[in-house]
Amino acid sequence: MGKDRVVLIIPLHRAPTLANFPWITLMLIVANVFVFLGLQSGDARVQERALDYYAQQGLAKWEFPAYRDWLAAHADAGQRRALFERFADADGAVAIQVLQSDAAFLADLRADKLITPQAKGHADWRERRDEFDRLWNAAFTERWMIHFSDFDPRRMFGAMFLHGGIGHLLGNMLFLALLGLLVEGALGHGLFLAVYLLGGLGSAMLSLLWRWGETGSALGASGAIAALMGAYCVLWGTRKVRFFWWFFVVFDYVKAPALVLLPFWLGWELLNLFWNKGAHVGFDAHAGGIVAGALLSLGARALHWERRDFLDEDAIAEAAADGRAALVKAREHIGRLELPAARALLEPLAAARPEDFEVRVALYRCARYEPRTPRLAEAARAVLAIATHSASEVREQKALYDDYVKAAGGALPLSDERMIAMVRRWPVIGAGADAARLLATLIERAPTTAGLEAACLGVARDLRTRGEPANAKRLLEKVVAAYPQSSEAAKARLLLADTA
C-alpha cells in the first residue's frame, strides 16, 4: 500500500459472484483511476512551469532568507530547517517544495509579516508571489493533498483519491479490490462506503496529529484501505479464514482466525513508524486507518448491522463439504458392515441436519444390517417422514418403505396422516396403483383420517392422467361408498361419470 514490502498478508477466501459483487469497491477503483489518469495527469507540467517562474522571477532572493529567519525563530522547526538547508543551494526546486509545504510559514508570508510593505521591492515581490501562487495552485494534486500543520477537512477527503505514481496507484487498487470484496459483502454497499470514507478521514486526522508541525504533505488511498483492514479483522472475528502470506522469499497459504491479523497488521505499521522513519511512507496514516476501521466495525457489530449470512457462508460451505465427505466415508463403512464406525459419522450429521434425506437413508441401512434390527422402525420413520423434493428421492423412499414392510412383516412405521402425505407423492414415479391400494386400505381401517378424502381424489386424478383409469375408478368408488354425503364424494361422482 504505497511501500516496498518484505511482509505481505492478503486474505483470499471468497470469489466474487453476481450475488456478492462489490459494486461500491469497483466504483471507488474507477474514481481513483480517473483522478490519477485524468485530473492529476497534467500536474507535473503545471508544477514545472510554476518552479520555472519562481526561478526566473528571482523569488528565492526574498523568500529564502525570510524562511531561514522564520525557521530560526521557531525552536520546533529543527527538522524543517535541516531539510531546507540541505537543498537550498544544491537543488532549488526541492527547497521551494519544502518551503511551499510549510503551511504556517506561508500563512505568515502572505499576511506580510515576513516581507513587510515597508520592505524595498515589496510591491514587485507581492505581484510575483501572487502569480506564482496562481501557477502553483493550478495543479490538481496541490489543491487537494494534505499539508501537515494545516487542518483542512476538504483536503483530508480529497487526498484519499490522489496517488503519487502508477506503482502507488496499482498497489493500492489491488488491496482495495481484495479487501473491498470481503468488507463490502460483510457490511452492504452503503455501510461499506461509510466505513471507507470515515476510516480514511480518521487515518488523516491521526496522521495530522502525529506530524503536526512538520514540513510535508500526504496523499493516497492507503489510509482508507487500512481502515478496511481493521474492519475486516473485526467483522470476520474468530472465523477461520484463508490468506496468503509472504515473508522475504518464503510464502504460503494458511488458515487462521481473522482477528489474529489485527495485532499483526497494526504492530507492523507501528514498528515501521518508529524504526523506519526514512521510508517516506505514511505508517502513521496506515495505523490510524486500521484503528479507525476496527472501531467503526465494532460499532456496526454492536448494532447488528453486519451481514451474518455473508460472513458465515464459508463456514456453512465447509460444514457441507465435511458432511459430504463424512457421508461418503460412512457409506464405505456400511459396505464393509462396519456399522459402529458408520454410526459414529452419521449420527452427528443427523443431529445437525435432521431433514437430510441421504443421511437418514444411510442410518436406515445401518439399522437394517444390525442383528435383530432393534432400531429399524425408528430409522424407517425418520426417512419416510421427510418431504422428498425429487423423483429420485420419492423412488428411493418408496423402495425403503417396501423393504421395511417386508422386513417388519407388514407393520407400518408411520401414523395414518404421515402415510397419506407420503403416498400422495407416489404417482410421480409410476406407483399410483400402490398408492391407491394403500389409500383404499386406510378408507376401510381409518376413514376419518384427516386429508384422506382429498388425497384419494388427487391420486385418482393422477392415475387418470397416467392412463390407469381402472385403478382410478376403483379408488373413486371407494370414496363415494365411504363418504356419500361429502363434497369429495360429489367430485368423485363427476369424475366417475366422465370416466364412463
UniProtKB/TrEMBL annotation:
Q: What membrane topology term does the record carry?
A: Multi-pass membrane protein
Annotated ranges, domain Peptidase S54 rhomboid: 155-298
Query: Cross-referenced Gene3D superfamilies, in alphabetical order?
Result: Rhomboid-like, Tetratricopeptide repeat domain
Q: Which InterPro entries match?
A: Peptidase_S54_rhomboid_dom, Rhomboid-like_sf, Rhomboid_protease_S54, TPR-like_helical_dom_sf
Transmembrane residues, as ranges? 21-39, 160-183, 190-210, 216-236, 243-265
Keyword Transit peptide attached: no
Task: Give any single GO term for biological process.
Answer: proteolysis
Keyword annotations of the record: Hydrolase, Membrane, Protease, Transmembrane, Transmembrane helix
Tell where it localizes: Membrane
Chief localization: membrane
Q: Which GO terms fall under molecular function for this chain's record?
A: peptidase activity
One Pfam family hit = Rhomboid
PANTHER family from the xrefs? PRESENILIN-ASSOCIATED RHOMBOID-LIKE PROTEIN, MITOCHONDRIAL, RHOMBOID PROTEASE
In which family does this protein belong, per the annotation? Belongs to the peptidase S54 family.
> What name does UniProt use for this protein?
Rhomboid family intramembrane serine protease
